[in-house]
Amino acid sequence: MLIALWAQDEKGLIGNHGTLPWHLPNDLKFFKEQTLNHAIVMGRKTFEGMGRKTLPKRTSIVLTSDTSYQAPENVRVMHSRQELLDYVTTTDDPVFLIGGAGVFASLLSECTALYRTVIEASFEGDVYFPEEQIDWNEWTCTKIIPGVVDEANLYPHRFEFYHRN
């Protein structure tokens, strides 16, 4: 099962020079809850934006067309969409796409679920989610969880779960 997981602002912004444009601890907690003990797939720029560090208790997969790319020993590198799809078929566990825009654009058609955090604010950045790749008629929203706004989480937000019809 391939699941796209991302956070975006109200305009679809997902990144700013390789990092998140906002600080929202609730979203980081949500991300951890969903991905813990599962594989996460990201592009090279996303991985490097994370300081080339892996997240604990997750299998990190970097998808890059650069066949000479050298990742740390505990990171699996894949070089094609098909290589990743072959991997997904070998596991019963969900595999999460976590970015960036190119990875989402090339693999959204293969996803069976979408988990989206929508932050009801606008930020500055340079990377947008490729929403034009989604035909929303193929998806059903199965759950929306409002995020708690408090002194640590300043922006209204919600967690949305979609499953392919």
Describe what this molecule looks like in 3D.
The protein is α/β, with parallel strands linked by helices and 165 residues long. It has a single domain (2-164), classed as 3-Layer(aba) Sandwich (Dihydrofolate Reductase, subunit A). The chain has four helices and ten strands. The chain has helices at 25-35, 44-49, 81-89, 101-107, and strands at 2-9, 13-15, 39-43, 59-63, 75-78, 95-99, 113-119, 127-128, 139-146, 157-164. The chain has an eight-stranded mixed beta sheet, sandwiched between helices. A two-stranded antiparallel ribbon has the order 2-8. It is globular. It starts with a strand and ends with a strand. 29% of the residues are buried.
CATH superfamily: Dihydrofolate Reductase, subunit A
Q: Estimate the helix proportion, in percent.
A: 10-25%
Structural class: alpha/beta
Number of spatially distinct domains: 1
- Order of helical and strand elements: EEHEHEEHEHEEEE
The CATH architecture can be given as 3-Layer(aba) Sandwich
The CATH topology turns out to be: Dihydrofolate Reductase, subunit A
Assembly type of the chains comes to: single chain
